[in-house]
Amino acid sequence: MTGIGRASVLIGAGTIVSRLSGFLRAVVLVSAVGATTGAGNAFAIANQLPNNIYAIISTGLLTAVIVPQIVKAASHEDGGRAFVSKLFTLGTVVLLAVATLATICAPWLVQLYAPGFPPAQQALATAFAYWCLPQILFYGLYALVGEALNARRVYGPFTWAPIVNNVVSIAGFLLFIMLFGSDVAVDAWTPEMIALLAGTATLAIVVQAVILLMFWRRTGLHVRPDFRWRGVGLDQLGRLAGWTFLMVVAGQLAGLVQSRVLSEAAQDYPGVLVSQNAWLLFMLPYSIIVLSIGTPYFTQLSEHAAGGRDDDVRGDVGRSIRTLGVFIVIATAALAAAAVPASRIFTDSRDEAVAAAAVLLCFLVSLIPLAVLFVIQRTFYAYNDTRTPFFFTLLQCSLVVLTALIASTLPVEYIAAGIALGQSFASIVQVILATWLLQRRLGGLRVGSWMLSLGRFALAAVPAAAAGWLTFLLLGGVDGWTVSDKLLGALGAALIGVVSLAVYAGFLALLRAPELGPAMRLARRVLPGGR
């Protein structure tokens, strides 16, 4: 448990810095292109395309399949060198081919994802895409190396490398503002402007991948190019990845429908970029809390599952959900109370902040269920079962598509919020089904124990959220200083969060929550000078 605690703190600290620098990157980007402008949405679509491929790699093949396989390969006579060499050679060849093909197909990809863009906006998005799509290769290498490091319990570099990415991006976007100004009209973009903005985004991903490669020695593996892809279990890897690939394709198709609907949102209303930034806010607590705590648990859980120790796996599931829950519940409450000032960070006016806050609140409905899903889904992966997750994810994707189509019938100002709420509903249904299926497989998950804990956390979160909202109102509400500026929005959101957290901790103490002590110790270890 001590090893997991140390790893969680290392990942959590890196993730906090990474996300904060990512926030600054998003703020500078919005300052350069605007939050609800044609150019801003065009860049958002173009830069989303390589991220979609990265999602396939990181949340699909790698997390689901490769970590457990590398853990198993460590028991081979060569420590897994042959397996990893073949795997990395194959992965690099595939990534290079996909990146090349995607770049050639940039005009068709933009048309596919954003049919609602006017011709000038589509042309600009296509120009951006030519610069952005080569990111696929470097995103993939970063994910491949990072998951290999995680499998060898080297957690830090994978978390800290994105900070360099953000620094490079911020510098490039600031240079753009200095040279060309901000909020440039769609038809006023020159090739030099496009190259600087989109080229900066791609250069940042290249640097991120190179930084991570510098830490490869810590794995203890000496990898060489090996094009003989048979003989070390890659056939099993292919069978496992088949279901995962289908699952991720289903997710990408659902995301495609959402993107096409969002492209119909008119300028000056929440669209692609506003939704992406709302998702960035939503992912802040998920990344800091769920990934930092859950990733080390997943490695341990994979080892217990590989050893057939089902009772230990049940214990891992319950402990990780309770540990995640004590933090993720208050994060949900605090972020909901601070939704407007937090959204102001990524918008250019009070009205835009209020509209963006509605999108954020709709996403937040599913934050707690997604934390539970993280543990449940990866437990299936630990047992090399990618088939079952495909089916419950297919249901979620079907609901996402259905709700996105329903959202397309709403007035234009509510389309983005409708899509976000539909996605949350689909995720809640997904986690209920996934938990039921895992309980059947393991012969019981002791759901009652960790549901009781989540209920206790929720009970304490109600007054915490109320205190945070009251703080927002006392500071002037929508007309107050917390919504008057990007920086003041960040300060206001932080203040509301501190108030909510203090009330939450107080009520957990009154309820004598047994999870409070371990949570406080873990939190102190993250703080500067903590132990």
TrEMBL record:
Its main location: membrane. It is a multi-pass membrane protein. Keywords: Cell membrane, Cell shape, Membrane, Peptidoglycan synthesis, Transmembrane, Transmembrane helix. It is found in: Cell membrane. InterPro entries: Lipid_II_flippase_MurJ/MviN (IPR051050), MurJ (IPR004268). It holds the Pfam family MurJ. It comes from the Bacteria. The chain crosses the membrane at residues 26-46, 52-71, 83-110, 122-145, 157-181, 193-216, 237-258, 278-299, 320-342, 354-376, 388-408, 414-438, 450-475, 487-511. This is Murein biosynthesis integral membrane protein MurJ.
